[in-house]
Amino acid sequence: MTSRIQQFLRDESGVTAIEYGILAAAMAAAVGVIFGSDGAFISALRDKFGAIASDITEAGTDTRSGG
User: Fold this and answer.
1) What are the alphabetically sorted keywords of the record (predicted)?
2) CB of 62 within 8 A of CB of 55?
3) What is the DSSP letter of 29?
4) Does the model's pTM come out above 0.70?
5) How many structural domains does the chain have?
6) How far is CA 4 from CA 7, 9, 14, 17, 51, in A?
7) Sign of CA dihedral 20, 23, 25, 28
């Protein structure tokens, strides 16, 4: 009986599956933070597209008088 317990304690094959599970959970959390509705990436992307749209709008207006 003690040999089976010692064999069980030395067996590390299940540890790898647990590590992969923890890694997958961490990656899912990171993707959720980055691409979430309030994530830093989405906010920066929204600001950049807003600046580009503003530049395009300003470039399309005619500021010359009598043009």
Assistant:
1) Membrane, Transmembrane, Transmembrane helix
2) no
3) H
4) no
5) 1
6) 5, 9, 16, 22, 67
7) negative
Residue 67 pLDDT exceeds 60:
no
**Is 1 within the bounds of a domain?**
no
Q: Report if residue 40 sits inside a domain.
A: yes
Question: Residue 51's domain spans which residues?
Answer: 34-61
Beta carbons of 20 and 27 less than 8 angstroms apart: no
- Asked if residue 66 belongs to a domain, the reply is no
Instruction: Note whether 34 and 41 are within 8 A (CB).
Output: yes
Q: In angstroms, rounded to a whole number, what is the distance separating the alpha carbons of residues 51 and 55?
A: 6
